[in-house]
Amino acid sequence: MLQQNIKTISLTLTLTLTLTLTLVLFLLPLYNPSRMPSFSQIKDMFRLQREAKKVRKELKKIHVEAEARGVKVVVSAEMDVVSIEIAPDVSRESIAANLLDALNRALKKAQIVASERMQGVMGEMGFPTESKIKGGV
């Protein structure tokens, strides 16, 4: 069940990126009918999509871990659970709470890593990133 939820989150991120590209490419003319996207802009959008796929492959290789009182969880930066280790001295009653805590922390770390990587791609393409929005360079 948990693995399925994580896959759903990953799929949601992919669909969000695809929907964003669709909105930019095809709905922009509706917002400003006098300005259709140029061939160069369309090429840039497809390049962004290729870069995003490349980043997703990289994210699969990045592992993030978190530990909570004897329960260690490792997840990929693409939100896939890689491994769960439970120390023999962890009480049966506390396993669920410790697992939940470790898993949530590992997933939050993975989201941060994924977000940073995607911001790099977005920045390359000239889109506003979190640092630009907050007033950074």
Query: What would CATH call the class?
Result: Alpha Beta
Shape: rod-shaped
Q: Report how far the terminal alpha carbons are from each other.
A: 42 Å
If classified by CATH, what would the architecture be?
2-Layer Sandwich
Overall average pLDDT: 75
* Strand/helix succession: HHEEEHH
Secondary structure: helix percent: 55-70%
Total tally of structural domains: 1
The CATH H-level homologous superfamily: Nucleoid-associated protein YbaB-like domain
**What percent strand?**
5-15%
Q: What kind of sheet is the major sheet?
A: 3 strands, antiparallel
Q: How many individual helices?
A: 4
- The tally of strands reads 3
Report the C-alpha radius of gyration, rounded. 19 Å
Unreliable residue stretches: none
Derived from helix and strand composition plus strand pairing, the structural class reads: alpha+beta
Spatially, the strands of the biggest sheet line up as 1-2-3
Tell me what the structure shows:
- Helices cover 64% and strands 13% of the residues.
- By secondary structure, the chain is of the alpha+beta class.
- A three-stranded antiparallel beta sheet has the order 1-2-3.
- The longest helix has 30 residues, at 2-31.
- The radius of gyration is 19 Å and the shape is rod-shaped.
- It starts with a helix and ends with a helix.
- The mean pLDDT is 75.
